[in-house]
Amino acid sequence: MSTIIYPSPIFGPVHSRRLGLSLGINLLPGDGKACTFDCIYCECGFNADHRTQSPFPTRELVAKKLEAQLKKMHEAGEHPNVLTFAGNGEPTSNPHFPEIIDDTICLRNQYCPDAKVSVLSNATFLKQKAVHEALMKVDNNIQKLDTVDSEYIKKVDRPLSPNYNVERIIDQLKSFNGHVIIQTMFMKGCNNAGESVDNTSEYYIAPWLEAVKEIAPSEVMVYTIDRETPDTHLQKATREELDTIRDRVIAARIPCTASY
Ligand code: SF4
What we know:
alpha/beta; binds iron/sulfur cluster; globular
């Protein structure tokens, strides 16, 4: 089974389905995966199979490597559409995330002022004021909310903290006052224990949609599995299912895209 462990702290550029030509910034170590979730669909694999022995990349290292890559791309006439914080786990878990965001915005302004700064996050550090403030500065503050059903979250996203509380996360997402994009994975099939993980039914969609309306994000991105997953019995949601969900979000006057 093939999973992807990204180099750190810079990878790519890669062409992203949702974001265009994207230069990746991985604030996790490059020798494994470390996340506050352990999603059964994670392209990096399960946490337990990829333990890391290394420290987080430092603020100085990230700035140095990012500047070198942006300079190289600039000289080659390559223009990233987006600088994307993603990689081997949760980017906001890096203790220097806020300062790194400041450095990245400065470098973006210097080398590729048209590029957006995007962060792909699972929302588990929003309670930290400095993280919240940093996310208010980025162009695309993309936060994962796969469902509002606690049992489904335990089965699929598998937060490491026993104190994870989706109601609290929704409140924190609301506190962005619209400066947030919600990203939701829809899929079918079952987990390795044989339990259904289908979140495409009305039972899951209706309360999720209500939460999305409360959060009032600038946009919603719905997507499905695209690569091999560590749980091997997961199935893609269909194009029709994703389109139907997308259209319901749009009907609530919230822009929404579906990626298949
Ligand atoms: S939140 Fe993202 S990085 Fe973390 S386990 Fe889930 S898919 Fe993987």
